[in-house]
Amino acid sequence: MGNRKYILVFLLVAVAYRGNAQSVNTFDQADSVSNAQYLAGNWQQLLATGKVAIGAGFDSPALRQRLGYARLITGDYSGALKDYDVIFKNDSYNTVARYYAYLCHKYLNQELSASYNAAYLDTDQLKTEKTSSYGLINTGIESSLKVNDNTYRGTSSYTRVYLTNRLSWRWQLEQSVAYFNQYITGSTVQIPGAPLLATISSNDQQLEYYGKVSYSLTENLQLMAAYHYLNTNYQTVTYTGNMGLFGIKYSGVRFTLQGDVNMGSLISKHINQYNVSLMLYPAGNLNFYTISRGSYIDQNNTGTDVFSQIIGYKLLKNTRAETSGTFGDMNNYNDADGLYIYNAIDPTKLRLGETIFQPIGKHLQLQLNYTYEQKHDDTHSLNYNQHSITAGLLWKF
């Protein structure tokens, strides 16, 4: 009996190393072979065995648990979430699967979905992850300088500070305050009662507040609402802008789909903007991904289309980069869930950019961005180029 036991173990390990998934012919065999491969850390062979076993109808929560862990270890976080979702259909309180699902969402930068799973974790696991139903998620600052080749436009600056916190396991709040400033040389006009022509110049100054609340209906389905207030001072006149956003987001296997609408007013213009965006991450992680977004902007019954494309990729071991392009008339264009509103004096016609994300230690991340823009000065009927450099620091709690 003792010799049979050792022979059986030897055969199972041999199968594990060979990855002979075709030999899985019974439920017990699928369970024993996959477990041997799991214990040996042969993740690719385990995934091959799991595929054959599930195709043959030999599925089980234990097999899904092993497959989910194998995918997590090999960096296929989206694939692992698919396995854990199968477990949750019959056992929504499986804390082991919930913990690994929590980690997968964190690695995909899906904080609200991670929080949804954290609600199922026990006290010890929450202490290990240093998380709670209410607390800070991140805080940061970004600042940029924008230079151009238009003699009528000075260098502009933009600074934003922001904070994101968890209100509960299903509610998340993002807030930021921003300030924009640019010196503008206006048109030469005749001043009433004056013998000479005069050029009106002014600082274009803008103070902004942005708030966005998100709610997780399920692990993969979220609702969001945002409000953006703008206070603009230009040539002794103060303008106020109010924009709102309502949207829905669904995270599937290796994709995220979002639809939203921006509504409000900016400098006497009523604006409705409709957006659809699709994010694809074919490998189940952020080593390579694309984000495509189409927008239709209706301003006082005049419509324009804007399309943006982002390609993200792993540049070095811990360094990620994004190459982006936005095409179309970006006059009063709302971007990034209404966070950025392009309502400058001169509309942008083309925007190309490159961003680098570099972690510094466990909690700090440095962000550097270069953006090239083609803009049009309506007052002087000329096109010009603008270059901006943005630096940001993000602290993750």
From TrEMBL:
Q: Does the keyword Signal apply?
A: yes
The UniProt keyword set, sorted, is: Signal
Q: Which InterPro entries match?
A: TPR-like_helical_dom_sf
**Does Signal show up as a keyword for this record?**
yes
Would you indicate the residue range of the signal peptide?
1-21
**This chain belongs to which protein, by name?**
Porin
Species for this entry:
Mucilaginibacter humi
Q: What is the lineage of its organism?
A: Bacteria, Pseudomonadati, Bacteroidota, Sphingobacteriia, Sphingobacteriales
